[in-house]
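Annotated sample (chain length 314).
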Amino acid sequence: MPTEPGKTKFQVDLRQHLRSQNISDNMVHLICEIAEASKYVINAIRTGDLGVAGTSNLYGEEQLALDVLSDRIMRKRLIHSGVVCNIASEEMDEIFEVTSNPQGMFSVAYDPLDGSSLVDVNLAVGTIVGIYQGCDLLQPGRNMVGAMYILYGPRVSLVYSVGKGVFEFTMNQLMEYTLTRENVRMKPAGDIYSPGGLRKKYSPENENFIRYLEDKGSKLRYSGGFVPDINQILMKGKGVFMYPALDDAPVGKLRLLFELNPMAFLIEQAGGSATNGEVRILDVNPEGLDQRCPVYIGCKEDVAKAGQFLKGEC
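Output written by the structure step:
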């Protein structure tokens, strides 16, 4: 196995790779179960109903049929995995208890289909997953034991970490995940920026940070999907994504438990950084399933510079 970042020249499947990582059999099984569930999710995306489901999630947002179906697929797989005690989904109103016996088991927080409103215009979407040991989901993200996302784009890719670096797998013609990049690393600074939210609702400090990025030659790359935007920054090894506090959304838009914690875990494992502008995302203590945070995530120097602008130091 090569150790340098980039593509591997050997065909290594997901289960084979996980078994080489010196992690528990239960963790291997859990990640493989999520990978299997993603095969049904991608089929639903390709062939499923693009209409609304006629229901709302706990945020009062209208659910799409694909949201509901993707959640059902993922939840069923996790419930029957035999290694999960608690489940929290962005599409569920409360934590679902699978078993009260946490011995050797995990709790999973996930967004089954992040960016689902982009499916009808054929843009990339994804699944985001955070994994915790035991039955406590409402704890800081630094306590996660694993995180992953699956990107449903022109290629289907799975990116994961269990605290031993970041690895990318790509689905082949047989719908098997094989290793394509290992030890993915971020550069200290980059030349890509992905700004979420309407700029007219930015604070002057955030607007000044954007001008700084533009002045240093950063290119605007924003798809409207959190998974593809983070994947671009992570796989190119450079750039910063931000969804700041807005005039009408002082705590931002993105959910701490289902979106920010898993992505912050992965970016940090690749040598990057993620903050809410003041403190590390992984140090924020969640007060409920619906907690949101502003976020600045990507290259360490760019994220640090955002914090300086917010403090009025630049």
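Annotation: Confidence is low (pLDDT under 50) at residues 1-9.
Annotation: The two ends are 45 Å apart (CA to CA).
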